[in-house]
């Protein structure tokens, strides 16, 4: 078995330790026990390997699919930046920030072991690499094994010195899912075939993330913001139209001439500003939306 010259990125591991489906490669473990192996293809600028990527996803309500925020790649989020920079109704601003908030997950490249082939003899190459989506607690557990090489060994190595792991997914009577991860104590190679490992090692984790999840340009993201504004405006207008008219008021008792003189006229009542309709979010008609998203740089 060929030896692979892998320099683990302990620096990145230490930093991230405290920094807390239409997809073809996406791996969502099923109920029960699933055995898998990390594929160390996350390369750092210094050439070291860190097999995870911290990925910020927009919420499903905003995009209806797993869409990656530019903050994942060290860039500013144009939607959040735009919302915070623009002058707008505070209720509208809060609604937009809530709709476009991101959730942080941790993505790792893995190979899923078949129950009848834990040794990996059936693996053919890079086609077998999947993307595992980890919550913070699961990521930190694997990270602890990664950092404690003296106790657990080199869990990321693809040769015979590396280790497999297991995901145990259960569901209780109330329907709540629990996911536990454990490391296998017996070392084994990722595959008994060196050419299969070589094929997997040609992949790049960042490229896989860009290919498998939705990554939009700044212009496309701001287009999604405009869609949200149009949707909120339509809902606000519909609510305004469906507000029920007030019940008829009883006929008032006759007033004295002095009371009648001091009471406002109908014309004065019509000219006075009315209270905003309950539930309406700011003044965001079509013209206001276009003005809000004008080409002028608001920053």
Can you characterise this structure?
The structure is a single chain. With about 300 residues, the protein is an alpha+beta fold. The protein has a domain at about 10-60 and about 100-215: Replication Fork Single-Stranded Dna Binding Protein (Replication Fork Single-Stranded DNA Binding Protein, Alpha-Beta Complex). It has helices at about 10-15, 60-65, 80-85, 90-100, 135-145, 150, 195-200, 205-210, 220-240, 255-260, 265-270, 285-290; strands at about 25, 30-40, 50-60, 65-70, 100-110, 130-135, 165-170, 175-185, 215. The strands form two sheets. Strands 1, 2, 3, 5, 6, 7 and 8 form a seven-stranded mixed beta sheet that branches. The longest helix has 24 residues, at about 220-240.
Short description:
With 299 residues, the protein is an alpha+beta fold. The chain has helices at residues 10-17, 60-63, 78-85, 90-99, 136-147, 149-152, 194-201, 205-212, 218-241, 257-262, 266-271, 286-292, and strands at residues 26-27, 32-38, 52-58, 67-68, 102-112, 129-134, 165-171, 177-183, 214-215.
List its salient traits.
seven-stranded mixed sheet, 299 residues, 12 helices, alpha+beta, two-stranded parallel ribbon
Which ranges are low-confidence, i.e. pLDDT below 50, for 5 or more consecutive residues?
A: 266-285, 295-299
Q: Indicate the mean pLDDT.
A: 79
Helix content: 25-40%
Distance between the termini: 56 Å
Percent of residues in β-strands: 15-25%
């Amino acid at each position: 078995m060929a030896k692979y010259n892998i320099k683990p990125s302990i620096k990145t591991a230490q930093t991230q330790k405290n920094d807390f489906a239409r997809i073809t490669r996406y791996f969502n473990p099923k109920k029960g026990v699933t055995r898998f192996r990390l594929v160390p293809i996350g390369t750092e600028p210094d050439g070291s390997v860190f097999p995870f990527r911290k990925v910020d996803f927009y919420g499903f309500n905003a995009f209806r699919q797993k869409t990656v925020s530019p903050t994942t790649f060290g860039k500013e989020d144009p939607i959040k930046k735009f919302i915070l920079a623009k002058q707008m109704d505070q209720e509208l601003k809060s609604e937009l920030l809530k709709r476009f908030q991101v959730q942080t997950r941790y993505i790792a490249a893995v190979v899923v072991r078949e129950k009848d082939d834990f040794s990996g003899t059936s693996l053919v190459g890079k086609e077998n690499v999947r993307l595992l989506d980890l919550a913070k607690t699961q990521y930190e557990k694997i990270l602890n094994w990664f950092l404690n090489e003296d106790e657990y060994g080199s869990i990321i190595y693809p040769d015979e010195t590396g280790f497999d792991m297991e995901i145990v997914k259960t569901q209780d009577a109330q329907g709540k899912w629990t996911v536990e991860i454990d490391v296998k104590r017996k070392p084994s190679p990722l595959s008994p075939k060196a050419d299969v490992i070589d094929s997997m090692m040609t992949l790049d984790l960042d490229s896989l993330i860009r290919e498998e999840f939705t990554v939009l340009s700044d212009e496309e993201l701001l287009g999604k913001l405009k869609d949200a504004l149009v949707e909120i405006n339509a809902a606000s207008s519909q609510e305004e139209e469906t507000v029920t008219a007030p019940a008829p008021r009883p006929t008032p008792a006759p007033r004295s001439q002095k009371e009648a003189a001091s009471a406002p006229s109908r014309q004065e009542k019509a000219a006075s500003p009315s209270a905003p309709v309950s539930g309406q979010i700011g003044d965001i008609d079509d013209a206001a939306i276009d003005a809000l998203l004008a080409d002028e740089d608001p920053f």
